[in-house]
Design goal:
123 residues, alpha/beta, 2 domains
Length: 123
């Protein structure tokens, strides 16, 4: 069950008191999990004095918007980084992202982690 605004505010305030320097807030709604409501993120942002790292289904535009608005101080990219070892270059240049091969995630060998091509800019 997702946190309520009151619970999120309470937890963020308590984390301030014990000296936590960042919260990494993951929104897996792009993968079918319940959405973390914008109001909950806002309450955490207002209550927590450290850095807020946001992740979950981000693209370049959404990341820039959340950074520019101060919603988060950092954006984490997971799956896009696996299949795009040059993700910062691709986001900056607007190059098309390579889709990940989910069948290679968390396997025992290097397939899917070391064989994705980089953009021509890095070649």
């Amino acid at each position: 069950m997702p946190y309520s605004e009151e619970q999120a505010t309470y937890i963020a305030e308590k984390l301030n008191k014990i000296g936590v320097v960042y919260i990494h807030l993951v929104n897996h709604s792009s993968m079918g999990a319940p959405e973390v409501k914008a109001s909950v993120v806002e309450k955490i942002r207002m209550a927590f004095k450290g850095s807020l790292i946001l992740s979950g289904g981000y693209d370049a535009n959404r990341a820039e918007n959340d950074l520019d608005s101060g919603t988060g101080q950092l954006i984490a990219f997971g799956r896009p980084y696996i299949s795009n070892p040059d993700l910062p270059v691709k986001l900056k240049t607007g190059a098309e992202l390579t889709a990940p091969d989910f069948s290679t995630f968390y396997t025992a060998d290097a397939k899917g982690y070391t064989d994705y091509a980089t953009s021509a800019i890095l070649a």
